[in-house]
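SAMPLE LOG
Freezer: B-3
Tube label: C17
Construct: single chain, 228 aa
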Amino acid sequence: MQLHRLINSKYPTIAIFDDIADEGDFEAIYAMQAKTNPRLRFLDGLEGSITISEIPASNQQVHSAIAPFIHTPVTPSRFSSGKYGVLYGASTVACGLSEVRHHIQKHLNKVEGIAFDNIQLREYVFVYNAPLEDVRPKEEFHLPDDYTHPQAFGARMWEQVRNMVNEGVTENDKLGVQYNSVRSQGDYCVGLFSPKYIEQMKQKRHYSMMYDPNTQSLSDAIQIKRVA
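STRUCTURE (predicted):
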């Protein structure tokens, strides 16, 4: 399935090794980077970490595929309390923008003294070719802002995925969930607990949204740039 991911584009990407490194080089490369970036977490057994074997080495945008797993989550999400990373994707770019817009607006509404903000988002399109746990029938997983049930489920699934990785992951293993979009009716989202089997992740369009503190709302997204 093809999926869309929107991330904050305030800072440019840095991926000087992605196009030249072989799979066998990754462990040494990331160990080197970790010396100056303590947020990189690749050690097996460390809480919330992934393993080198999960890195999709053939993916040109490998840094984007693994980013949610190697950086400590800033805030909890629908399927994580913040102790581990989850890569989220949406079935359409409109769905992804709706989901991200809700969470950014919720965060900015809590910032005291904010006068104005311009949010720029970078779109990634990627393919995921492995089965997912379908939780769309579970109504308790789709409450607008109560993540109690999906976070508990996500914690259990994270542990299950870690066990699968230790035993040897196959393409038949379910390493993520598929659920209904709460912000875009008729669309769906996925939450991946491992970057394994993420394919063809490419950077596409850029969007901009303006925050108005008077109305405490973000404007609709405007496309500002496209990457071929």
